[in-house]
Specification:
199 residues; elongated; mainly alpha; 9 helices
Length: 199
């Protein structure tokens, strides 16, 4: 019973913070609301006995991605007036997508699959290790997809580095060989002027 109450509390906070992400005007507050979303999602994962996924969600998304996102948001000079204009311009599309998503969730939850004896969460013993089960699945049944995903991420990282370090064609840096052979007459011009007489 206490797990059900905790689930409803965390789910309500999750829905509220998700609404804050898309409705608040300040981008820093929106990013912090997204951090709260991640924490609530991790709490729901913990209730489902998926401890590894909950810890990864907190460490990777909250600890790395969201910190980087917050630094980017706080360092950029964001024009809030343009953001407000864009929000009002795309509001009908956003409301349409939200209504479609709500309709789909009502269809799924109203189908009766999660009610009664069709869906009963499994209870495991205290010595059960979710991380061990996930590792066994990743490195036995899903080994090739796991390796392919790693190779795709490696190619994406190499491509991002190559695009970042690409030299510009309009590079105006001086050539060191030409700097060495320069003489004084090429750089300095001495002008002889008559001295002015004091009145």
């Amino acid at each position: 019973m206490i797990e059900l109450i905790l689930f409803y509390v965390v789910a309500a906070v999750l829905v509220f913070s998700a609404g804050m992400v898309v409705t608040v005007r300040n981008p820093v507050i929106a990013a912090l609301s997204l951090v709260l979303c991640f924490f609530c999602s991790a709490a729901i994962w913990m209730l489902l006995e998926a401890e590894f996924l909950a810890i990864v969600l907190v460490l990777v998304y909250v600890g790395a991605v969201m910190v980087l996102f917050l630094f980017v948001v706080m360092m950029l000079d964001i024009n809030l007036a343009e953001l407000r204009a864009g929000f009002s311009r795309f509001l009908p599309i956003g409301l349409t997508v939200a209504l479609v998503m709500i309709f789909a969730m009502v269809l799924v939850l109203g189908s009766g699959f999660f009610a009664g004896s069709n869906y009963v969460p499994l209870k495991h013993a205290a010595e059960y290790s979710n991380t061990r089960e996930l590792g066994l699945l990743l490195y036995t049944e899903y080994l090739y997809p796991f390796e392919i995903a790693g190779a795709i991420l490696l190619v994406a990282i190499i491509a991002a580095i190559a695009l970042t370090l690409r030299k510009s064609r309009n590079n105006r840096s001086p050539a060191p060989a030409k700097q060495v052979i320069v003489k004084r007459a090429d750089r300095i011009r001495l002008v002889k002027m008559e001295s002015e007489q004091k009145p």
